[in-house]
């Protein structure tokens, strides 16, 4: 395996009230304390204060699930990068397929969000991935290349130290249908190749590229054994402390 540090990040999606989050974080803290990888939990906005407070002094890092691209102003209902930073939030997911699918986000708005987050000092987990139809039409590589390139437009080589790319085939998210380890490895490798074309080999080799899509306690080991798969973005299985701990402990 490469020298890159694996990152296992939970994506809680729209689950857990703040009171429920407190219970889950209390279970997670001891369960993942011996992790050999970086551990992140991305929670709903309303859980962030609780998550940051309860993970102080632990190895768990806290992230949000989205961020708006403007600094401040008349954007009712939105949350800025500075607001997240001020809370002690370190990470943010951008471009999750559910945001693209249900909230009309595009490669362009994903790029704007990534830039706003990076410029505010956040680490970003940028999600890319194809639909089943796109895979069947044979355009996965082209699509993922385009999504990655556009998402990273104007991101500097220095800022790439704070960028994680998550390859998440849409057909594998929340479906129980995981990509095979070879499929995950192939596309994660293609993403690393694009990064190399834009930023050079050293940046490509240093960038964490995760797989996401129905990764669980049973299938994590095989997926994580692949050389270009540097961890995972975990939805459903991140809501159960014992399952999340198994995945965390499988990653180094
Ligand atoms: C996700 O939402 O990022 C995800 C990978 O979900 P799940 O693990 O539930 O497929």
From TrEMBL:
Pathway: Carbohydrate degradation; glycolysis; D-glyceraldehyde 3-phosphate from glycerone phosphate: step 1/1; Carbohydrate biosynthesis; gluconeogenesis
Source species, domain of life: Bacteria
GO terms for cellular component: cytosol
Main location: cytoplasm
EC number: 5.3.1.1
Enzyme class: isomerase
Cellular localization per UniProt: Cytoplasm
Record has Cytoplasm as a keyword: yes
Active site per UniProt: 96 (electrophile), 168 (proton acceptor)
UniProt key word Cytoplasm: yes
Entry's Gene Ontology BP terms: gluconeogenesis; glyceraldehyde-3-phosphate biosynthetic process; glycerol catabolic process; glycolytic process
Pfam families, sorted: TIM
Protein residues bound to substrate: 11-13, 174, 214, 235-236
Entry's family note: Belongs to the triosephosphate isomerase family.
PANTHER family with a match to the protein in the record: TRIOSEPHOSPHATE ISOMERASE
Purpose: Involved in the gluconeogenesis. Catalyzes stereospecifically the conversion of dihydroxyacetone phosphate (DHAP) to D-glyceraldehyde-3-phosphate (G3P).
Name of the molecule in the record: Triosephosphate isomerase
Source species: Faecalibacterium wellingii
């Amino acid at each position: 395996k490469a020298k890159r540090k694996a990152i296992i990040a939970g994506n809680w999606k729209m689950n857990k009230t703040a009171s429920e989050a407190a219970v889950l974080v209390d279970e997670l803290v001891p369960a993942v304390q011996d992790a050999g990888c970086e551990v992140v939990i991305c929670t709903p906005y309303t859980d962030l204060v609780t998550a940051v407070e309860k993970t102080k002094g632990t190895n768990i890092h806290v992230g949000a699930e989205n961020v708006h691209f403007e600094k401040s102003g008349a954007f009712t209902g939105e949350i800025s990068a500075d607001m997240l930073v001020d809370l002690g939030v370190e990470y943010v997911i951008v471009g999750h397929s559910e945001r693209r699918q249900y909230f009309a986000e595009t490669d362009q708005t994903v790029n704007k969000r990534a830039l706003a987050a990076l410029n505010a000092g956040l680490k970003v987990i940028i999600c890319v991935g194809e639909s089943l139809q796109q895979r069947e039409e044979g355009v996965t590589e082209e699509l993922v290349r385009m999504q990655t390139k556009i998402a990273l437009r104007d991101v500097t080589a220095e800022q790439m130290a704070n960028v994680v790319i998550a390859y998440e085939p849409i057909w594998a998210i929340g479906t129980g249908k995981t990509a095979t380890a070879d499929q995950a490895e192939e596309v994660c490798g293609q993403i690393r190749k694009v990064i190399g074309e834009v930023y050079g080999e050293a940046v490509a080799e240093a960038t964490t590229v995760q797989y996401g899509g129905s990764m669980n306690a049973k299938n994590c080991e095989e997926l994580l054994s692949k050389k270009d798969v540097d961890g995972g973005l975990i939805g459903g299985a991140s809501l159960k402390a014992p399952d999340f701990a198994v995945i965390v402990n499988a990653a180094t």
